[in-house]
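To close the section, here is one more complete example, presented without commentary so you can practise reading it yourself. The ligand is glutathione.
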Amino acid sequence: MTPQADPVLYSFRRCPYAMRARMALAVSGTQYELREVKLRDKPAAMLAASPKGTVPVLVLADGTVIDESLDIMRWALANRDPEGWLERDDRALVAANDGAFKHDLDRYKYPERHGSEPLVHRERGLAFLRQLDAQLAGGGQLCGEKRGLADAAIMPFVRQFAAVDREWFDQQPLAHLQLWLANHIASDLFDTIMIRQAPWSQS
Ligand SMILES: N[C@@H](CCC(=O)N[C@@H](CS)C(=O)NCC(=O)O)C(=O)O
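Output:
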């Protein structure tokens, strides 16, 4: 029998959606071929698999395409979930992250792109951060004491929000959130998925 080829992940290192997918793939121990993509010059093979043109895209050995980050997380964890991440999901919170919070993050971070008033969006984003902080006060992670799907799905977006004005973020009374973010960023898992790789090109 010929061995099954590894799935291929089209990814962009700094994309928060791709980060959450890489975290779930890594924690589940899934072997995959990482293809770093230039967003301005997406490979034809990626667009052929998923014409909507967003990363991450996972292409399985049988040709199945999974092109939504949360679906990639759930696929990987359904195969193998050594830390029990699927038990620590919070669909409403993740939806709020991907919806209103992401909307405010973009308009806070890139006001010139959106013609937006950044501080209005920083304030709205702060309301979500307060909600996360209150939830983290319980056990240190979003669904209790151990990291899970909700933490990995949301953390990359909070990281981006915090980095827009680090001094401001550090001054907010969000001690649980600040500690949570610092620990996730310092984790071996995050280190592993943030390894730099040259962009992939079809040869
Ligand atoms: N709903 C998608 C969103 C993915 C997404 O928007 N990724 C961004 C990068 S962070 C992207 O590929 N944008 C297309 C582009 O910039 O051309 C998912 O969860 O996978």
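Once you have examined the tokens, check your reading against these statements. Residues 89-188 form a domain with the Glutathione S-transferase Yfyf (Class Pi); Chain A, domain 2 fold (CATH 1.20.1050.10). Strands lie at 8-11, 33-36, 57-59, 65-66.
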